[in-house]
Amino acid sequence: xxxxxxxxxxxxxxxxxxxxxxxxxxxxxxxxxxxxxxxxxxxxxxxxxxxxxxxxxxxxxxxxxxxxxxxxxxxxxxxxxxxxxxxxxxxxxxxxxxxxxxxxxxxxxxxxxxxxxxxxxxxxxxxxxxxxxxxxxxxxxxxxxxxxxxxxxxxxxxxxxxxxxxxxxxxxxxxxxxxxxxxxxxxxxxxxxxxxxxxxxxxxxxxxxxxxxxxxxxxxxxxxxxxxxxxxxxxxxxxxxxxxxxxxxxxxxxxxxxxxxxxxxxxxxxxxxxxxxxxxxxxxxxxxxxxxxxxxxxxxxxxxxxxxxxxxxxxxxxxxxxxxxxxxxxxxxxxxxxxxxxxxxxxxxxxxxxxxxxxxxxxxxxxxxxxxxxxxxxxxxxxxxxxxxxxxxxxxxxxxxxxxxxxxxxxxxxxxxxxxxxxxxx
Amino acid sequence: xxxxxxxxxxxxxxxxxxxxxxxxxxxxxxxxxxxxxxxxxxxxxxxxxxxxxxxxxxxxxxxxxxxxxxxxxxxxxxxxxxxxxxxxxxxxxxxxxxxxxxxxxxxxxxxxxxxxxxxxxxxxxxxxxxxxxxxxxxxxxxxxxxxxxxxxxxxxxxxxxxxxxxxxxxxxxxxxxxxxxxxxxxxxxxxxxxxxxxxxxxxxxxxxxxxxxxxxxxxxxxxxxxxxxxxxxxxxxxxxxxxxxxxxxxxxxxxxxxxxxxxxxxxxxxxxxxxxxxxxxxxxxxxxxxxxxxxxxxxxxxxxxxxxxxxxxxxxxxxxxxxxxxxxxxxxxxxxxxxxxxxxxxxxxxxxxxxxxxxxxxxxxxxxxxxxxxxxxxxxxxxxxxxxxxxxxxxxxxxxxxxxxxxxxxxxxxxxxxxxxxxxxx
Amino acid sequence: xxxxxxxxxxxxxxxxxxxxxxxxxxxxxxxxxxxxxxxxxxxxxxxxxxxxxxxxxxxxxxxxxxxxxxxxxxxxxxxxxxxxxxxxxxxxxxxxxxxxxxxxxxxxxxxxxxxxxxxxxxxxxxxxxxxxxxxxxxxxxxxxxxxxxxxxxxxxxxxxxxxxxxxxxxxxxxxxxxxxxxxxxxxxxxxxxxxxxxxxxxxxxxxxxxxxxxxxxxxxxxxxxxxxxxxxxxxxxxxxxxxxxxxxxxxxxxxxxxxxxxxxxxxxxxxxxxxxxxxxxxxxxxxxxxxxxxxxxxxxxxxxxxxxxxxxxxxxxxxxxxxxxxxxxxxxxxxxxxxxxxxxxxxxxxxxxxxxxxxxxxxxxxxxxxxxxxxxxxxxxxxxxxxxxxxxxxxxxxxxxxxxxxxxxxxxxxxxxxxxxxxxxx
Lengths: 426, 426, 426
Hints:
The structure is a homotrimer. The first copy, chain A, contains ten helices and 20 strands. By secondary structure, chain A is an alpha+beta fold. In chain A, strands 11, 14, 15, 16, 17, 18, 19 and 20 form an eight-stranded antiparallel beta sheet that branches. Chain A has a four-stranded antiparallel beta sheet with strand order 5-6-7-8, with no helix packed on it. Mean pLDDT of chain A is 94; it is low at 181-193. Chain A binds chain C through residues 24, 51, 53-58, 60-61, 63, 71-75, 87-91, 94, 98, 101-102, and chain C through 157, 163-164, 166-168, 209-210, 316, 319, 321, 324, 329-330, 332, 338, 341-342, 345-347, 350-352, 354-361, 364.
């Protein structure tokens, strides 16, 4: 699976983690490998091997200067592309001879959507996936990341499992499960849905805890559509995008809402970074919204400055048994924290050998098929899904209410137009 | 040895760790296996598998309601017996079909002596061991537990090794080893023996550091009798009960004293819970005595609310070298802490390959023989000692002074009547 | 390599770690083995096996008394030589029979230079290496140790690599690398070289970052000589002693300066103690100098009472990126801390398979050859270099300025007289 990931562009860190020209170097671990990231004197980002090729000193302690990074041990200097440009400890002739051998590994780097993306492969590289959040003006988005303390795949599965919303994220009022909006003091502050029309959707989530699923594949992944009974004989559809190999767009937004997405990047087998995107296609995220997201709301947990959630594995997510009785299904504060708690609770790597899957797990099943199929493609030296279809990532997710019996094609058309996904050409 | 333990009833947690109806679930690890314990809406205790059979979410985050526990992820519901009673995410017909497959593992549970006991086996189950501490009125006992940071077996060996009392627990006065009572400020506050008659016993412990042992086997284990020279040509006997496979009753009490016992329950190979029992056959434990035990006294260490001793491996049991010179043999405060320190100090699992055993270690040797023999019995599909003799656990331990040359049978008769142990019938 | 180390005398702990008669026992771990060190009632130091031979209780909890250590469990007593002198739990006759079997392992111990040295081997033992720091009056030296959080060998390599001084320890002023002396507020307080003549040497270190090396072998190790261009067509030599198997004397001192040395003692494969020696051949270290060294200066870092540096692996040595831009090459405070950071950064055990060595690494290469050759000698049951030449350790290191083209023999003669090293006799 590591080889498969290395065919795709992957978020390595947030742009703001390396600020300004000659930024301080930071350690980055991706797919179990150690790197150092920094900006050079022109502000160009680089993600290079962690250790100096001379004697193995860690470049984290290096100096960013002279349009590159200089090892703190003996002053060897390297560019963001990995070229060795100075070996001051050798005589000039010897240095010239050694420099080509002293080239270091440098990942391919692009910056988009306030994220530094890397690619492990060699030329020719695919294009960056064409995410809408990265295409909108910077003021229209808020991007962050959070530490998840378990294997990436079960966390993705949580993101694709829209059925759990009827339980894990439910409120409790007078001893009964209720929509978030009715839960009084337990209502998460993050919700932007306080108009009466949106309140209904929360009620439908709780009233119909057994949604029916349809999956529509497309060139970059699939759209997972879950229908619940709404009022007046209508259906309430929540539609989640899964985009290969580790992205999702969340299903709970109407066209006029801020959209949300995630990317899960393995640090190692037992932890991952979850990149979180909030963006609005048509207007800026305003200061109040931005402050709320920074403080922790919805997909964005309260975190320390190392992007470690305040509520985490070590402290049982600060679960309150009292609030679990009276305010929310879990007693854990925050949608993000509830998701993280459940994913972590499945183990460092979830054991799938004894599951009892049912129809609402169809998205999870298809995710596993699709990712295993991609691994097979890579083994067969074929291009896995999505890599050569960057524009197929320009899709949307969200919810909609439609009459019963509406064909799924019409549901997608009515809600997304052409942005439901690009049809597979093969 | 794990299979052998699984033939016996084992303390899983204190009754008070799950309080009231629909208690908060707590994590329980026994013999390396993870469980969740809770009380249902009727107050009935359950100890069930940790992970939901659906997708593996941990039931610690579940909700106790509707006479069972409900998984926080998708609302599946299970009784204390492990029956799946609700799969709300499926249609009613599918749910009915799935429930039998969704049964979870539930240990057999009994409550006795303020302890929740579990049995791993299948029907027919043996009866609970008939401990006196569990049979007296609740007000006559005080029960707690403490974390021991090493393998269970060496901790049991410490409990059966009555010889070490002459050293490990001795006081120091003017540079000389003395009985606890003479040690002035180092006297542990726990002793109830402050009448002059009892003071002598402490002196005898120190004056005769090489006790002579006799072992009397019985249906549930053995009585380990250690004789020391007392005044006036008499013998001072201290007699410890070992009860299969992991219980002991301590040897230092006269008939009118509060009795004490322990059970060592493996958490994993490197740690165990030590259940601690204080009880009086004839009268309640009064408030002052109870407060003393709660604060830490004798077998009961000062602990935090997770039952982790304040003095522990990580902080060298707060040893004071100054007090080791002037007040006590170890410089460590508390009998319990002294015992825990020494057992831990033997290593996470004590290495027995290079021991130099002598006659005072006879109890340790017999313990090893008895427990290994039980493992052999289990391998041969026979019932190991004690399992089918629950009433043989209604025994006592304690001390007594007798004339030299008194036959051991008379010693037992004079001190315990018939409560020395049930003769083996085979 | 462990067998090779066991042929030499090794520092086990500082003399002051066990103070006075009947000192408190302390845990000592050397080459992965656990010991307990203490002083007996006569003040004689002992380093003995950690666990009592009776039942394996750790002797750290023992009592130092009666000219030996007494186990806290059952009172067995042992001398610093490992003799068992009391088994109070056995009858006298049995005890006499058991004592010879109860002998414990005791390392050979010598005290010199405020250090307790041990030897793992059997008689006949070599003599202690005849270090000058141990031969001067006690008031002429200051000795301490510090924890290094990586394998010993790469830390030694850092000590022998005099070339890095031009980079790792450089100051920064107005964005340019400068000698320590010009760096203003970043000047380490440790330097004793504040006279104008010495200032030049720091400038030469920075101006000539590619020193030329010559190595002179001798009976106890080698002298590593690095020449840099000085003013007026002269050469500035810095000469480091490497003494088998784990000692070095530093190169930066003139004859009138305090001399400095180090010994790296493996705790296990991933950490070592670095013993640090400062001494003056001709005069006492005065109180002000001593206070400075205690507080952390030069080779002596600021430490807690367990000899763990304040700046260490876990906190990135409190690196300041601001100070890295404006004051020093690393932004890490202190020469010792800079060295420790770089050695640690090479990994718990540095990977040498992909190095790009150049001419300035000649000392490192020769160290590896010499130590691997010693291991080969031990395998062939021959005495490795230095073991039978204790007086060959009475050497000095330091710097000197000489005219260009001065033969190395004359350089050594002019700076050290006969104290450059003892010629090899074979």
